[in-house]
Amino acid sequence: MTTLLTIDALRQRLKKMWRRFPVTLYRVGLARAMGALPVLILTTRKTTTVGARHTPLEYRRHGSRIYVISPEPDTARWFAHIRDQTYATLRIGDSSRPVRATIVTDEAEAVRALFLFRLSVPAPLRWVTWSARKQAEIQPQALKKTARRYAVVRLEAVPKTVMADVLPPVTHDRAWVWWWVGVAVVVVGFILGNTRRRG
């Protein structure tokens, strides 16, 4: 039982790391390549501790507006942060800017934003996209229901002078390469150890 619980905890940890993998790619210096993906990094200020939180989010553009989705608004930390503090910083590729984050309350606008997520992405990129996994929920007949369940957030650029303290975007830091190497070594060692015990 202990082994099963440990394996389950490891799976949850790996799943969380996988969701945050785009942040790591930015940190190891692949910002320009990441700019080709429909994924931005939103930096919000933590509300319970000091510091910033970097969250990868799939996005869609409509004119000067950028929309992101929170399928789990009650538990998503980044959503709680922007609900308490309006301003954040986003990064797309080599570009970063301060933004005002507004929770969309108009159902018509939310439906229009969700409709944008029906635009498909190339197959190799679907591993990072929410829309590829939730196609049934963003079909035309389901959009209104989905808009009531999910939270749609509108991001609009603002001058830096509007923010008293501009949050720094995720930065280039090759030290994270060694962190991931260490994690890989631990995971491989754990798997090999369990395999030997079973044998």
**What is the count of DSSP helices, taking H or I runs of 4+ residues?**
8
Numbering strands along the chain, what is their spatial order in the largest sheet?
A: 1-2-3-6-5-4
Q: How many domain regions?
A: 2
CATH superfamily (homologous) name of the largest domain: Electron Transport, Fmn-binding Protein, Chain A
SSE arrangement, N to C: HHHEEEHEEHHHEH
CATH-defined fold name of the largest domain = Pnp Oxidase, Chain A
- The parts where pLDDT drops under 50 for at least 5 residues are none
Distance between the termini: 18 Å
Cα-atom radius of gyration = 19 Å
CATH class of the largest domain, named Mainly Beta
Number of β-strand runs: 6
Overall mean confidence score, pLDDT = 78
The proportion of residues forming helix, as a percent range, comes to: 40-55%
Main beta sheet: 6 strands, antiparallel, barrel
Beta content: 15-25%
Principal-axis shape: globular
